[in-house]
Amino acid sequence: MVAITVPCTIDQIPLVKCPKAANAAVPTIDLSAPGAAAAVADACRGVGFFRATNHGVPAALAEALESRAGAFFALPHKDKLEHSSARPFGYGSKTIGPNGDVGWLEYLLLSVGSSTIQASSLPPSLRAALEEYTVAVRAVGTRVLELMAEGLGLADRSALRRMVVDATGSDEMVRVNHYPACPLASSVTGFGEHTDPQIISVLRSNRTGGLQIMLRDGRWVPVAPDPDSLFVNVGDALQVLTNGRFRSVKHRVVAPEAGKQSRLSVIYFGGPAATQRIAPLPELMRDGEQSLYREFTWGEYKKAAYKTRLGDHRLGPFELPQAVTAAVKENTSTDHNCSSKAVQPPPPPHVAQVY
Ligand SMILES: O=C(O)CCC(=O)C(=O)O
Ligand SMILES: [Fe+2]
C-alpha cells in the first residue's frame, strides 16, 4: 500500500495495490439444502468464506434498511456527528478504531443486546429497520452456527450457537458501512485488510462491489456483489475454537471510483461473552493433537486487540510455537503479485484492534 496526500477531507487514505483479478469463485451454499452442513464445513476449511442462499431474510427488510441507512448517510455531516459520542459505537467517518486506521467510508457501529439495537438516538425509522433486519440476520447466524457444528461432527449441534445467540452478554454487533464514490483517485482503501475477530460475520451489500478476499495462496480476489445473498466469514475466535480447521479470512474493501454508485454494506458480527473461554473444542481434538493457541477469554482478546492496527496479525500473541512454524512454512511457499502482509512470515506478537 502507498500513502497518498489528498485534501484534508480525505486525509491520508492508503491506496490498495493489487493487479486486476477475476471475481472469486465463492462457494455458494443453499442453507436449506441437504448436505449444507458438509458444504459449510468445506468452505470454512478452504477459503473461510461463502455465499449463503435461501437464507430466509426477506428482501423487503434488507431493502428498507438500505434505503433508511442511505437517507441517514445523506444527512449533513454535523447531524451525523451527533451520533458519534458513544465510542467505539455510533457514527464514524474515515477513521476506523483508535489507532490511526483510515478509509474512504463512513459507518454506524452498533451493539446488539437481546436482539435490540443499543442506539436510542438514531432516527426511529432507521432504528426500527435495523432491529427488524438484525432479528432476521441473527436467525441466519444461528442456522449457520448449527450447520458448522454439524459439519465439524460435533455431537452437540448447539455448541457454537450457545456461545453467541443463546449466551447472556454475548458480543453481537451490527455495522453499516457506506463507501461514497471517491472522486480523487482510484484504488483507494475503503476498509483496510483485516480478519474479523468474532466467531462469524454475516454480510449483505447493495449492488456495488469493492469487497475482496484473500485466497489461501495469498492472492486478493474481488467478490461480485449479490444483494440477494448473504456472505458468511469465519472470524478469529472460530479459527481458534476449531484449532485452525476453519480459517479466518482476510478481506478488505476498495472504495468505488468516481461516477460509480456508493457501496452500502451491513454486517452482523457474532461474538461470545467477555468471560467465554476461547480454546480448541476438546471434542474436535484428535489423539495427540496439540492446541495451536494458548487459551484466552474473549474479553482478554478484545482488550489486547483494541491496542493495535486493523491489519495486524491479531492472533499472533496467542499462537503457540508450532503454529508459527506451520504458518512460516505455508507463507514461504506462496507466489503472487499482491502486496499483502499475510504472506510474510508471521509478524512480531501484537494484535489488531477489535472494532
Ligand atoms: O463493507 C464491507 O463490505 C466489509 C466491511 C468489513 O469487512 C467489516 O466491517 O468488518
Ligand atoms: Fe470485516
UniProtKB/TrEMBL annotation:
<dbReference type="GO" id="GO:0016491">
    <property type="term" value="F:oxidoreductase activity"/>
</dbReference>
<dbReference type="Pfam" id="PF14226">
    <property type="entry name" value="DIOX_N"/>
</dbReference>
<dbReference type="Pfam" id="PF03171">
    <property type="entry name" value="2OG-FeII_Oxy"/>
</dbReference>
<keyword id="KW-0560">Oxidoreductase</keyword>
<feature type="compositionally biased region" description="Polar residues">
    <location>
        <begin position="330"/>
        <end position="342"/>
    </location>
</feature>
<dbReference type="InterPro" id="IPR026992">
    <property type="entry name" value="DIOX_N"/>
</dbReference>
<dbReference type="InterPro" id="IPR027443">
    <property type="entry name" value="IPNS-like_sf"/>
</dbReference>
<feature type="compositionally biased region" description="Pro residues">
    <location>
        <begin position="344"/>
        <end position="355"/>
    </location>
</feature>
<keyword id="KW-0408">Iron</keyword>
<dbReference type="InterPro" id="IPR050231">
    <property type="entry name" value="Iron_ascorbate_oxido_reductase"/>
</dbReference>
<comment type="similarity">
    <text>Belongs to the iron/ascorbate-dependent oxidoreductase family.</text>
</comment>
<dbReference type="InterPro" id="IPR005123">
    <property type="entry name" value="Oxoglu/Fe-dep_dioxygenase_dom"/>
</dbReference>
<protein>
    <recommendedName>
        <fullName>Fe2OG dioxygenase domain-containing protein</fullName>
    </recommendedName>
</protein>
<dbReference type="InterPro" id="IPR044861">
    <property type="entry name" value="IPNS-like_FE2OG_OXY"/>
</dbReference>
<keyword id="KW-0479">Metal-binding</keyword>
<feature type="region of interest" description="Disordered">
    <location>
        <begin position="330"/>
        <end position="355"/>
    </location>
</feature>
<dbReference type="GO" id="GO:0046872">
    <property type="term" value="F:metal ion binding"/>
</dbReference>
<feature type="domain" description="Fe2OG dioxygenase">
    <location>
        <begin position="169"/>
        <end position="272"/>
    </location>
</feature>
